[in-house]
Backbone:
């Protein structure tokens, strides 16, 4: 069965510290992996997708098929990175998504 | 710029009432989705639709129904609202096609409180 696991509900770091938000998945085929972000009082929006291999706002994520992981990383956290982050998997028909339970990132000054 | 709008930001209803949540997208997307968002549970798919008049159950369809009479509009219906349906409801849409179009675009959400 398809499943996305984000083990941390809350992650607190100081400004300038590295941050890693963990995401593990299970899927029988070849999934597309995404990170979505929701800033306070804003709608959920795409942060990055693994097929693009891009860095957005300093964040990167590498798909590790061996470990079935897609961790989100940033070397130096900023206060404006404080938000709710969701890992998501897309696969199968109709672009159906499976979301993790989310990790709230709190970057302290 | 894709825009997904939802009819209400906040809604308060009484137990047993019939509730309609409306979602409209302006990008001619084939797929539309309804999720509920709860702390610690993330987003859970209620129903989705891949074409007009077509619908598929998601992971938690019980107590809900949907309607898609026009391509741009997808309605979520709570036939008889209950307190355990108090939640944030998110609508999303996406296109069908190449991997680059797999992104789902979300509305601002409707916070429903059932008393």
Residues:
């Amino acid at each position: 069965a398809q499943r996305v696991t984000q083990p941390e509900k809350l992650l607190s770091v100081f400004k300038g510290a590295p941050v890693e938000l963990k995401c593990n998945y299970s899927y029988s085929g070849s999934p597309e992996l995404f990170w979505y972000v929701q800033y306070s009082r804003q709608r959920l929006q795409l942060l990055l997708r693994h097929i693009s291999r891009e860095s957005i706002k300093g964040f990167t994520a590498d798909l590790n098929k061996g470990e079935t992981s897609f961790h989100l990383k940033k070397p130096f956290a900023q206060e404006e990175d404080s938000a709710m982050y969701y890992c998501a998997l897309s696969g199968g028909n109709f672009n159906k998504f499976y979301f993790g339970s989310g990790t709230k990132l709190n970057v302290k000054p | 710029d894709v825009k997904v709008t939802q009819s209400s930001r906040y809604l308060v209803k009484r137990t047993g009432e019939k509730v309609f949540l409306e979602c409209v997208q302006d990008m001619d997307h084939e797929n539309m989705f309804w999720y509920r968002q709860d702390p610690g549970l993330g987003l859970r798919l209620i129903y989705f639709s891949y074409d007009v008049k077509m619908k598929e159950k998601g992971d938690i369809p019980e107590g809900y129904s949907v309607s898609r009479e026009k391509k741009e509009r997808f309605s979520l219906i709570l036939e008889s609202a209950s307190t355990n349906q108090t939640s944030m409801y998110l609508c999303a849409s996406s296109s069908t096609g190449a991997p680059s179009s797999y992104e789902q675009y979300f509305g601002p959400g409707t916070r429903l409180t059932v008393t």
